[in-house]
Amino acid sequence: MTRVLLDGITMKRQSKSYIDSLYAILSAAGLFEGPKYKLAGLTGMAFKFTVHERLLPLSVSAYGQWGDEHSPAIRNLGLYTVWDAGRTRHPTFSYYQQDAVKWVKQSLDDGLGVIYWIPEFGVICGYDDEDAVFYVQDGHSSDYKIVLYDNLGLNFTGFWYCQIFGERLAPPLPDMVLESLRLAIHDWDTPYKTLPNTDIASGKLAYTFLRNGLQSGDYDEGGAVYIMDDYMYTREEIASYLRDVSGTFSGLEEAVAAYEELLQLVPGMKTCIMEDGVKGRQIDPMRRDGLCDLLHQAEVLEERAITAFRAISERYPDLSRSTIRRWGVATPR
User: Fold this and answer.
1) Hey, which residues does 281 pair with through a beta bridge?
2) Residues near 312 by beta carbon (within 8 Å), at least 6 away in sequence
3) Can you tell me the distance from the alpha carbon of 67 to that of 285, in angstroms, rounded to the nearest whole number?
4) Domain-by-domain residue ranges, the chain?
5) What gap in Å lies between CA 75 and CA 73, rounded to an integer?
């Protein structure tokens, strides 16, 4: 019986769980060098901002159809990938599950971890055929979670997701930076990523949902704190990323300045979160209005940064979005 454990993989929850997982896998395999914030920036994942109307915790990971959202991110790295996902209630799930067990094990045999929806996203870093289990890291603890082969993909959300990676042919840095700006623009301009549902807002509209939710007083307290924690951390990631690549394009310094100014608001936002001995961390009811005011200022600053991104993007052709295939916008049948 075969047992494999990639002990070089260490996942730590800091950013979005997908980026935390991706960084752990790629850095361990030598497929990415640099800080995590650079990976979050180049993939465009740091710019994803989604909020449920009741500020539910799922807001942070409900940034769209995962395949549609992750594929451009991975493609911008020049990285080979294969993924599969769906709903566990579908009658064909067991067939896809059995197939996934095979290619997940093959990836681990090749020395590459696998992104897996626990939930949230985590890393499958090993397996044991004798016990028929996978070893999974969630980033919160150094202990491994155990997932039976027969339980792969099963969880309370009803969704499953696995993604493996291969070789990388990194594009030139300016190409990756330009595409990351365009991904940021797309996220900012797309109000709803989970249509036909409109209870989760994306990009610019997410600010409105967040403020409205806080002002209503009828929201998930844990979710509100989680959204704010993710928001503040990812704005720091964006600022660090843009500082690093600011010399890539003229005009990018305007966006850097906007995010630097936005970061000056973060300490004030943090003071709006209080520690309750019974309920844990929650938004201070006495400071909700102040937090909403800070978020409005942040929205204005982020709009300014996106305007700078647009000016840069418009200077260069965007063939991947402007070229219409011979069969039109629909795929051939």
Assistant:
1) 275
2) 178, 181, 249, 251, 252
3) 38
4) 3-33+79-168, 173-318
5) 6
Its pTM stands at 0.94
Burial label for 279, CB within 10 Å (0-12, 13-18, 19+), is exposed
> CA-to-CA distance for 331 and 49, rounded, in angstroms?
29
- Helix (H) / strand (E) element for 161: namely strand 159-168
For residue 168, list its beta bridge partners.
Answer: 79
Q: Check residue 172 and report its DSSP letter.
A: P
Q: What is the pLDDT of residue 333?
A: 46
Those residues whose C-beta lies under 8 Å from the C-beta of residue 333, and which sit 6 or more positions away, are none
Contacts of 318 (CB under 8 A, 6+ apart): 182
Mean pLDDT for back-to-back runs of 10 residues, the chain (333 residues): 92 96 97 97 98 97 95 97 95 95 97 97 97 97 95 96 96 97 98 96 98 96 97 98 97 97 98 87 95 98 98 91 63 48
Question: Where do we find the tokens 């800091």?
Answer: 14
- Dist CA 93 CA 173 (whole Å): 39
pLDDT value for 276: 80
What pLDDT does 155 receive?
Answer: 96
Would you state the torsion angle of the CA atoms of residues 248, 250, 253, 258, taken in this order, to the nearest 10 degrees? -110
Domain 3-33+79-168 superfamily per CATH: Cysteine proteinases (3.90.70.10)
Token digits for 259? 């995010």
* Phi, psi dihedral angles at 250 (to 5 degrees): -70, 140
| Token pair 């260490």: residue | 10
249 token code pair:
């394009």
